[in-house]
Structures are given as C-alpha cells and as structure tokens.
Amino acid sequence: MPADGTPITDDRRGAARLAALWARGRNLLGTEYAIMGGAMSWVSERNLVSAISNAGGFGVIACGSMGPDLLGAEIAATAALTSKPFGVNLITMHPELDRLIDVCLEHRVGHIVLAGGIPPRKAIARVKNGGAKLLCFSPALGLARKLVRDGVDGLIIEGMEAGGHIGPVSTGVLAQEILPHINEIPVFVAGGLGRGEAVAMYLEMGASGCQLGTRFVCSSESIAHPKFKQAFIRAAARDAVPTVQVDPAFPVIPVRAINNNGSKRFIAFQHEVIARFRRGEIELKEAQLEIEHYWAGALRRAVIEGDVEWGSMMAGQSVGMVQREEPTAAIIGELVSQAAAVLSLRDGGPAAE
Q: In terms of DSSP H, where are the helices of 242-283?
C-alpha cells in the first residue's frame, strides 16, 4: 500500500458495492468514507481528529471533562488543521452540557455526539434547533426506537469489546438485535473492529458505517506517549480486560483496559471508597464520582506522561490487531481496501479469480 494510504485495488466492483452499502452514512457525515473515529479522552484531540477527517473519515473530538472555553479552543484548533467535517463528543452527565452544546453551535460544528447516558430531550432539542446533526449511542433496541422518535439523526451501537467504559452486550449481538429493526436513520457499529472485512460484514447486515478507536491510537498523528503506543503494539486481544466490580450493591460501569498495576489498584480503590460511603463519610453520588475521577487522572498519566504501569491503559480487544505505528491515512486506506476486497470476493469479482 502506498504511504499515503491510497487503497490498492483495481476492483471497481468491490469499491462500488462498498460505496453503495455505506452511502447513507457518508451522506450523514459528509465524508468520503463512513468511518468515524472513536472519541478517546486525551487521544482524540486536534491532531488525530483532523488527520482522520483529512484522510476521508470523520474525526470526533473527545470533550470529556473539558469546560466550555477549553472545548472552544480545541474546536478552533481542529478547524485550523482541516477543512473537512468533524464532530464533537459530549458526555450527557457533564454539569455544563447545555453550554458545551452552545459552544459547538457557536463554532458551527456540524455534528454532535451525545454519549455516556440517555440524552435528555432538552439536550436533543438544543442540538437540533441549533442546526447540527445529532448522533447518540444505543445499547438496546428499545432505546434505539425511542431515540429515533426523539429525532436523532444517527445511532452508534457499541459492543463490550470496545475500550473504555463498556456495556454488557457484545457487538455481534447488538448488531443482530438492532440492525434489522432500525431503518429510519443510519446506524454505525463500534466495538472490537480492527479490519475491513468486519466492517463489510456489518454493512451487509444493515449498518451504514462504523466507528473505530483503538486502531487509531498508534497512528503517527496521535499524541499518545511512545510508551503508551508500544504497550498497544505488544498487547494481545486477551490483554484488554474489563475492570472488576467489587460490590454488586455499588454499581460501577466497567472499563476495558490493558491489565496492569493501575487496574489492580482500581480494585483496592473501590473498596476504600465504598468503605467511606458505608461509614457515612461521603454521599453515594460523591462516592461514584470519586471512582469515575480515578480513571480521568489515571488515563492522562498513561496517555500523556507514559505511565504504563499505574496509569489507565484503556483499549478495545482489537488492540491485538495494532501491529505498528503508521499514518492515519494508511490505516483508513487498509480498512477500505480490505472491505472492498471481501465484498468483491462475495460478488464473484476479480478477487475471486
């Protein structure tokens, strides 16, 4: 494959089939390829986001815990690096969610992704009335139908194979549960995707595009610390495991990460916080926030500072398919080539000869 990531294929049949399968996704995003970049805190910032968009995909800024001013600066910096469409991922539980939406609209961000919980109807209306396209996550068919009724423009279904905070259901099961029944709007599949053949499979099942995060961590444009990238390159799929919930009476959303001392420390930290809660030293919500904040600090230590022993190594199970550091355009080009080749094979094209 050329260094610029241009797909190597003279197979027009496979390429045409691919273009048809994800046409709705491309139209919604305004991109050449319906490949979204997963919003990864500290990783999905201006450099990686603009690189994904410039390569024909759809980069997404991870707002995370940013305040309005910081988010506004990040959007402006990203816009200075690309003239292509990109979006912003906002966490629904953020205390300044309404203001963050306004910042996106003020900067004319065309697409907003609401994540981390069921989006309030007020937030949905704020995005839609501001003229932006809205995408939301759905972990179940019932919620997917509700979000369609609420007027969202696209859905993302993400299985437990993904990195970071995860739900209890695999990508394959979610796809079977949701894709046959949601036709009104485009649906993007995420969680454990690492090769174009898998992307093609979900497109044939009815998806309009895909979202990948882990594959882009080791791109040349990613600002992740060299030690963080090397840990990804060395890791196998089985190394990315979900964190343990130590007390069923004290629910904690599991986080999938490469196992290290930081993951082990998280178990002890949960015990400490729960003990303080039961002694009446802190309220339930405060205790839950302390546990969530553990990951915010630990993730920065790993991604930015290179603390791969005690920091958080959030990664999806597709980490086993991360083999080297390479340009973002090469990653996207490889995904597109693989998808087109397998589609041609199924249609009896040149690749089958």
A: 261-278
